[in-house]
Fold this sequence. Notes:
Layout: E1 13-14, E2 17-18, E3 23-27, E4 29-30, H1 39-47, E5 48-54, E6 60-67, E7 79-86, E8 91-98, E9 109-110, E10 134-140, H2 144-147, E11 154-161, H3 167-176, E12 180-188, E13 191-196, H4 204-221
Antiparallel strand pairs: 1-2, 3-5, 4-13, 5-6, 6-11, 7-10, 7-12, 8-11, 9-10, 12-13
Amino acid sequence: MKKVILIAGLLVMVAGSTTVQATMTYNFYRITNNDPTGVAGSIGESAFFVDVDESVNPDEVLFTFGVLEGFDDPYDSYFIDGVYFYDGALFQLASIIDADTGGDSGVDFEEPATPQHLPAFNPGDYPTLTYSALVDSADAEPPAPTYGIGPGESLGILFDLQPGKTYGDLITGLNSGQVIVGIKAQGFGDYSESFITYIPAPGALVLAGIGIGLTGWLRTRRIL
């Protein structure tokens, strides 16, 4: 099985401007601390990612969520079971692209998610959001451990861009926190955790750079 991960912010700043590539990869930052050991958060921030791709259609953009394999940890059954999109100014959900590249289960998501909003996420705490409402959400069909996004699996979410908006506008929004993508994950023993693509703190850019480097190293070494 192979899944594509969605999540570490890739920021390229040149003379005050942002250079946008055809594919940007974002890692996720934990906003909950349900696992008292902290292991769940560490795994999630390293293993979960989302790729943001330009579509053949310039009015569309593809989000591909994935989970890296190969972590030596006490949890061998972690998976993403919900995805959430905040900021209606840029896009709206067009279609869900379930993916199964092998194995016994596959991935099967439907909208909206239950719960419909990302647990522990309060849009009011993020003044960077240009439109602090949920655009759309989707989650795994029951049983979630079977149809969620596990290590080596992927899920695609295709969005239509709003009129007048471009892929570059979306990337700018993700980099600045004007657009926030969230995920809910389970399989950390008895615990679940919530993660988002943007943390409005001075250290966020440094952490994003570390996340990008780790994702690239893992892919080069053994993952993708």
